[in-house]
Amino acid sequence: MSLQKDVWWAVARSEEVTSDKPLSVDIGDQPIVLWRDNHGIARALEDRCPHRRAPLSLGCIRDNGLIQCGYHGWSYDGETGRLKEIPNMKDQQKFPPVYKATAFAVSEQAGFVRVCLDPKAEAPASASPHYKYSGTANVSLRHQEYLDALYDDPSLLIAIRAVHFTPYLMSELHEQGGRLVMERSCQWKTPHWPAHFVAEFPLTLLTSTDPVSGETELTLRDDQAKELLHAVLAPVPAARGVTAVRWRAELGERHAGIRGALLRGSNPLSVLSSIDGTKLRTTKPTVSLHGEDLRAELRGATHDSSQPPVDRTVAA
Amino acid sequence: MLEVADRPLQTDESPTTRASTPISLNAINRWVPHDIVMRDSWFPVAHNYSVTGKPVRRAIYSHPIFLWREDGVVVASEFHPNERIARDKSVYTDVKGHYPTMEHYGVVWVWFGNPQAADPVHLPSLPFLPPKGGLPKHMTATVRFESSAPISLENLIDLTHADFLHADVVGDERSDSETVETFYDSETVTMVRTLVNKSVAPVMKFFSGIRQPTQNVRQVIRIYLRSHCAIAYGQFNPGDDVPLFHPCTPETRDRTRMEMVMNTSNAGLMFRHVMPKAGYKVSRQDSYMTSPQSPRYMRHTDRKDLHSKFDQAGQRYRMAMMELAERQEKGDFAYRDNVSADCSDIIGLRKELFQF
Ligand code: FES
Ligand SMILES: [Fe+2]
């Protein structure tokens, strides 16, 4: 897929990025290594040592915050990617500027570490709060297909405890403030009439998607407009057509009664990492049918999709 | 000095000839070892004890080889004797589909190339192995790598990684001084690394009973380019003399077989038995890096690899391989240097320890 260089992808949750061990992630075919330096700042370099192309994620993080390649021990600075040290090279520890790994821009907010392939990109403005529950799922579905599935039948991808997603929409997918927004009717999972014959739905799931990154905010509301659950789902196109999904969620207001209690308790959201292929194949595209066009339109309005190809030797 | 400019390697220590077209430093820093296919060469394919009456399967650059013995003599054939033949014979074998083959140093060698050109004079010199073989089995091993043979050999000739990747076996990176010298001709590259007062390798502490905190180390790596095989010779003082035959036979362009022989006859009893086994551990550590590294060398990239002064030998290896490959590309398969001439002096072998 074509990856726009100026997108901030939520490639990790904050707690996944540590100074104990480098984390390997990818944006499309671009492998990236993440770690936290000695000031606690998240850093991102291309996961490829420019010496002999070994993955830097197989190395370690030194006390001084540099990442050290596990092969010959070259150490790099996370901010600039510059080579800082070669073991045993006592006479020379100043290196010409070309001695560097490719550095990417990093921004951390609301419990997500976001990376932009353009190192000069401006950090995005902070939006959502830091939600307490979180998780990571790698799904073997391409990024657009992931979004399509989310629009056509969210139960293919996620589950909210005690909640049943109906096929009935209260609002089709439309543009609102530059985002893709829709609202789906939901029921409690407790015994209920089949959705087709229900006069009033007790719940709705509101989704709002960034048309470029596909990052989606989910809000579960009851019929009194109480917001019961907030979540952010951040699907990132990863290697081999996999979509790496990081998510965070928080319970909102309390819905009265036993049903409201069911939703509470511990982590209310689960994001599936395996997809039922039969169910997926036979899920007819409905929302996604014009959703893809709408998304393309919104992206086209704000973004230029031309970009240089990634070095094809790195995908490995 | 770090070289970043586009110019050939300056350290031209060779006493012998130069190739006709010098290959630029840019080219070697962007080399694609996966594209290098060498021929007219003896490849070590099996320990002689593994070839019996029952055919065993090998390959060189994906060309099938079946090895078995008839009246004690090794046959290397393109076809399994029971095979229903549904493919054409290649140009690398005689009318019967047999490759030239020979046994020497306890290893079975197969000639890959023009069968008419096969000549024992092109067999690499391995003066620390008994010509007729016969070392005990525990000094041998088979190891496989999911990487291209030149990547494995580059790994071997660059010994700085050892202090790092193999620290638990060979000791850490601390020493008082380190020098690296490189010698080469059109068929070989030899590197000599000398370390003064290096921390003693943990394996030696345990199994050779070395009490001193440091030892002087002289390590030699000699690569026979065409055969993709190497000698790794370590002299440790105090300590042992451990010469190792380290072939990297390209069974395919990115899968490598190593029929290793380590002559530890001169070492202490424990060391003699344990050291060859250390090869398994060390090779897994190498593989941890070379497996992900190798596919990144399967296609051309415009980005140049960086290097330091410690990569002198590795850079030379790349250049020599590319020069040889370029000559073969033009149809020139002649040997300009003799690979079978005794290399004891070049590797500094303590001959008195290896009399056969
Ligand atoms: S490959 Fe990273 S230090 Fe050599
Ligand atoms: Fe190694």
From TrEMBL, chain A:
The UniProt keyword set, sorted, is: 2Fe-2S, Iron, Iron-sulfur, Metal-binding, Oxidoreductase, Plasmid
Q: Please report a single Pfam family linked to this protein.
A: Rieske
List where the protein spans the membrane.
Answer: none
Q: What start-end ranges are recorded for coiled-coil regions in this protein?
A: none
Alphabetically, the GO molecular function entries are: 2 iron, 2 sulfur cluster binding; metal ion binding; oxidoreductase activity
Q: This protein's superkingdom?
A: Bacteria
Q: Does the UniProt entry include the keyword Oxidoreductase? A: yes
Q: Sorted alphabetically, which InterPro entries does this protein's record hold?
A: Cholesterol_7-desaturase (IPR050584), Rieske_2Fe-2S (IPR017941), Rieske_2Fe-2S_sf (IPR036922)
Oxidoreductase among the record's keywords? yes
Q: Where is the Rieske domain?
A: 8-115
Supply the name of the protein. (2Fe-2S)-binding protein
Q: Which organism is it from?
A: Novosphingobium resinovorum
TrEMBL record, chain B:
**Where is the Vanillate O-demethylase oxygenase-like C-terminal catalytic domain positioned along the sequence?**
147-327
**Which InterPro entries does the protein's record reference?**
Cholesterol_7-desaturase (IPR050584), Rieske_2Fe-2S_sf (IPR036922), VanA_C_cat (IPR044043)
Could you list this entry's UniProt keywords, alphabetically sorted. Oxidoreductase, Plasmid
The biased composition feature labelled Polar residues covers 11-20
Residues covered by region (Disordered):
1-20
Q: Name one GO molecular function term.
A: oxidoreductase activity
Q: Where is the composition biased (Basic and acidic residues)?
A: 1-10
> Is RNA-binding given among the entry's keywords?
no
* Alphabetized Pfam families for the sequence: VanA_C
Q: Which PANTHER family match?
A: 3-KETOSTEROID-9-ALPHA-MONOOXYGENASE, OXYGENASE COMPONENT (PTHR21266:SF60), IRON-SULFUR DOMAIN CONTAINING PROTEIN (PTHR21266)
> Know the name of this protein?
Oxygenase
Which organism was this protein described from? Novosphingobium resinovorum
